[in-house]
Amino acid sequence: MNVNIEEGWKEQLNEEFEKPYFAALANFIKEEYSNHRCYPKGSHIFAAFDHCSFDDVRVVIIGQDPYHGAGQANGLCFSVNQGVAMPPSLINIFKEIETDLGKPFPTHGDLERWAKQGVLLLNATLTVRANQAGSHQNKGWERFTDAVIEAVSKHKENVVFLLWGGFAKKKGAKIDSAKHCILTTGHPSPLSANRGYWFGNKHFSQTNKYLKDKGYSTIDW
């Protein structure tokens, strides 16, 4: 199957694209996008890979589903386009950055600038039907994104994996902790953050310290 994705990723994931489960997933997505409003738009489904090549990956952040509200999802986990109101989880991410690094709160929630610096913003499920959270789960995306995480773990070294919340921690179970840095904390959603499981995690300064110690450039969060 011919999937339009950045060349380095294509090389890593070619075998996945040829498997029967991926053909079934592609058919499902085609049907869903033909018959229902779905997010993100088709050209942005693989945006996380297009904006962050395999060779450039330095940090991986794992989300769950794309946003399912109108105009929100842009193919990067937690991110929204400029001009779109920031969702609560993203606001809490920026609040932590403000406290951790002393950076001013940004004017928009588009995280493409992170991706361009080597942050893979990966949702476990890459598509969703409008206003129906979780509607494209268990259709094959999870198997595909597991393969993505395994490829990074196996073929790269000294990557920082940021696992926020129970779902992301389970998703990261196969990461080789001897080769990579794994940082875990609660999810940035208000439900978790307001109970003390998010704020104060200092993941952004810790990530930069690790990258600097390994001789890499740091991320401008």
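Next protein, fold it too.
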Amino acid sequence: MNDSAAQMPPGAGRESLRDARRIVVKVGSSSLTSVSGGISTTALTALANVLACRQLAGGEIILVSSGAIAAGLAPLGLVRRPRDLATQQAAASVGQGLLLARYTAAFAHHGVTVSQVLLTAEDFSRRTHHANAHRALERLLNLGVLPIVNENDTVATHEIRFGDNDRLAALVAHLVKADALILLSDVDALYDGPPAAGARRIPEVASPEQLAGIEIGSPGTAGVGTGGMVTKVHAATIAASSGTPALITAAGSIAGALAGEDLGTWFPSYGTRRPARLLWLAHLAGTHGRLHLDEGAVRAVRDRHSSLLPAGITGVDGEFEAGDAVELVDPAGRVFARGLVNYHAGKLPRMLGRKTDELATELGREHIRVVVHADDLVLLSPLGGP
């Protein structure tokens, strides 16, 4: 188990990266592709050289790498990233093996063994999947292997996919209790405006409030990536708010980043760790409906951290199954929490406002369950975040 977290106290500066033992590094497709659109051997090898050196010096590196779809374009005769899910899945299926083969060869030059770990959102939302993913990654690290993680694009659907690997990297960092997260981009830092217009680098973001009014870029026109700076900032904020500091910088600056140099944009940690499933629920889960609560239920959930009972629900919106994520809404119409619901949407209307013992008598013992358990709830701030 990683015991180096004590080296990275809340608010630690980027110089702490010099001594960080376990680091998650994420690299995007735009940082790995060549001018012709395929995977750049030069860029991939340069990254592997730096990460292998850190691994051989006693560090533990988990690499979250995009690029499977980009690697599969040329073999399939495609000139740009496909928009339909089925063709994306086909390209990922072809490209994932090619991408891993490149990494295997590059790291083998240094005597470093790599492995492939493909994850989906379900691996963070379901307790058993989460435990299995954690156990597998821990064992790989203990064996001295460098795991290479990617979203399982071949089987992921629009409804359950991350959509970009930045947020996946934030959850992986939380899952393995990483000391830091480094998000590599084709831009060297977050700026207070478009970099080409003479904007200034933002060296540190200590809280989400600092980002108010800043124009953050979306994906470029190259067509190989899905994130852009906005998802990197989101991922860095997710990590920092859950106890893992993060750095956004350019892929070519990875050596300097690991040395703790003053580059990129640093997000010092300011929150505490919590279950990865709740992190997913707060930031990534797609919600399928809303439960409207009376004031008493709002106070019970928000102030006393109680489970949600049918008696406190005044209305139901949306179509959802048991286990889906829903929003909890106060009488003023404000969403103040998210949770995993225990009932199908069609079963709730006849339960509203009624006590559980009454429901059990009339409808059966299966209706004695709470609607949303306290362990499956996350509260949101007035700004809309956790």
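About the second fold: Confidence is low (pLDDT under 50) at residues 1-7, 220-226.
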